[in-house]
Design brief:
The protein contains three helices and nine strands.
């Protein structure tokens, strides 16, 4: 039996390690705790994002260019389709009472963001501007200097069997359409 205890780290790719380090340490206040120089002109840096979790970045001298709309979100948060095997976004857990302050901090730092807390619910649209009993996560979306879509997310309820109400789609579903 395989038993995990959480996420150790997620490893992403940046275009400029100095710019990325500044954003994660100075804007998001995630301490840098490990750096690695890679053979062939690369680096791998690790940032503490809380509770023993980390976000890490690779940088390569000769790395390929970004591919928005394929390997990353083209325009957050609503033009969010990405390719199979890509990362859509990274959500950092945050206490609900911290969300307003996070909006202010992003604004002060000049970071492009949603300018409001989005309340995720089960409506057809999937979110509401207003808080109500059906909201299960409250979020603030923003992008880092690499164009990576990030989220501060606060879960507002405990989930149970009644929250699993959809059948999973398959590749055949796409072909039948």
């Amino acid at each position: 039996m395989i038993k995990t205890t959480g996420i150790n780290h997620v490893a992403l790719v940046c275009r400029d390690m100095k710019e990325t380090m500044h954003f994660y340490t100075e804007v998001l206040h995630m301490p840098l705790f490990k750096t690695v120089e890679l053979p062939g002109g690369g680096q791998h840096f690790f940032f503490d994002c809380g509770n023993g979790n980390a976000v890490a970045f690779f940088w390569w001298e000769d790395g390929p260019e970004a591919a928005p709309g394929i390997a990353s979100v083209k325009k957050f948060p609503f033009d969010a389709k990405t390719a199979v095997g890509s990362m859509n976004h990274l959500a950092f857990d945050m206490a609900e009472e911290e969300l307003e302050g996070a909006l202010d901090r992003l604004e002060e730092a000049g970071v492009d963001h949603t300018h409001a807390i989005l309340n995720h619910d089960d409506s057809k649209q999937g979110y509401s501007r207003d808080m109500h009993d059906g909201v299960f996560v409250r979020s603030v979306y923003f992008t880092d200097p690499n164009g990576i879509m990030l989220e501060f997310a606060a879960t507002t309820k405990n989930f149970g069997p009644g929250d699993i109400t959809h059948e999973p789609a398959t590749a055949a579903t796409k072909q039948d359409a």
